[in-house]
Amino acid sequence: MSVIIHNAEHIATATDVRDLPAPVLPEIAFGGRSNVGKSSLINDLLARKKLVRTSNTPGATRGLSLFRVQLAQGSLDLVDLPGYGYAQRSKAERKTWGPMIENFLRARAGLRAVAVLVDLRRGLGDDDRMLLEFLESIDRAPILVATKVDKLAKNARQTALAQLKREASLTPIPYSTEEHLGRDALWQAVLRAVSLGAPQG
Fold this sequence. Notes:
Elements: E1 5-14, E2 27-32, H1 38-45, E3 64-71, E4 75-80, H2 91-107, E5 111-119, H3 126-137, E6 142-147, H4 154-168, E7 173-174, H5 183-193
Parallel strand pairs: 2-4, 2-5, 5-6, 6-7
Antiparallel strand pairs: 1-3, 3-4
């Protein structure tokens, strides 16, 4: 394991960016569709099993959840954004998620980059495109992550990754929480974004 995690803890959850603690560390946000495996990925990235609540029901993340991480290189915060695109939540609830996420991405002073998670089996959806376009419009750096790559055979995996790269005009980081694939690569991208320096080796 290239990244040494000394501690990781949940700091706060809020439905309004103004109710989160003021940023004191560089932050990386994680966004994606409700069934993209975001909570499982963050747990895997932090080498924790239950720090981020996972659920069999998509859309379990309802607010902005802030996690503080202490590494050998320094400290940073990770922010789990509510998943989008899950139709079974009420319309009123879904309408609040758009402004909540947009306000955070637009106004949060500590935010350094946004990991945009895409299920490799499904490819880039309209919601994913909208998020990437929004990030470009506000000059926020995206980190594209292709999740659930273990669900595809090796040949199909490479084809899907190449298609995702073409559609997003970004090179995706393949990630599998089952195979623990992509953890070091994602950490390197995160550490570069927050200027802590990626570990060697």
